[in-house]
Amino acid sequence: QKALEIRQRLLPATHSDTLHAAAELAESYIRLGLNDQAEKLLTEWLRKVRPSRNGASFGEAWLLYEKGWLLQVQGRSDEALSYLHQSIAILNRTIGAGHIRSRNVLWQLAAATQDAGRVEEAERLWREGVRQSEGDLGPEHFMTIQFKKGLAYFLLEKKEPRQAREILEQILPSYHRITGPDHNNALDAEGL
């Protein structure tokens, strides 16, 4: 909240850094379970940025991402997709598809697409995320194994447990090396 207040004093409301600070505050609210406050904040800031259309920025993309994530958390994945698609399009233009933030949004888009029941599109997104991350970051990078875990979960939902098990057996040692055996991501993968 303090970071947003400082940016509001020093920068215009539509400056990318100001918008990013608002998005990060919304993320804090979501992580604390304060979804109503996050919704109010995101609605207010998206209203400020939408009329200007001076060219989309990283900050605007991150507001859209947070709005999409909030909608997904609320079980409204169909609505989330539009925000996530807009976010990733802006990020790919401004910071590039290979940037870790773009990868985060691609991961969330794949998860929301899966939650919305769009099976073929979700599988394409999960596999694209794995392919891009392996190619750019390597097979042992945390983002790569996160995409692989997402794909494994997708395959379990799709009733393809053999393929899912192969992926999980491949990534569990990586999780243990990178995060340790007691990290929530390693435990989550073990629970699949």
General description of the model:
By secondary structure, the protein is an all-alpha fold. It contains ten helices and no strands. The longest helix has 19 residues, at 119-137.
Q: What is the averaged pLDDT score?
A: 93
Strand proportion, as a percent range, falls in: under 5%
Main structural class: mainly alpha
Q: What is the percent of helical residues?
A: over 70%
- Using the alpha-carbon principal axes, give the shape: elongated
- Tell me the distance between the termini: 37 Å
Number of helices: 10
- Strand runs, count: 0
Low-confidence stretches: none
Alpha carbon gyration radius: 18 Å
The description of the largest β-sheet is: none
Provide the succession of SSEs: HHHHHHHHHH
Short description:
This protein has helices at about 1-10, 15-30, 35-50, 60-75, 75-95, 100-115, 120-135, 140-155, 160-180, 185-190. It is mainly alpha-helical and about 190 residues long.
Note the topology:
Elements: H1 2-10, H2 16-31, H3 35-52, H4 58-73, H5 77-94, H6 100-115, H7 119-137, H8 142-157, H9 161-179, H10 184-191
Helix pairs in contact: 1-2, 2-3, 2-4, 3-4, 4-5, 4-6, 5-6, 6-7, 6-8, 7-8, 8-9, 9-10
List keywords for this structure.
mainly alpha
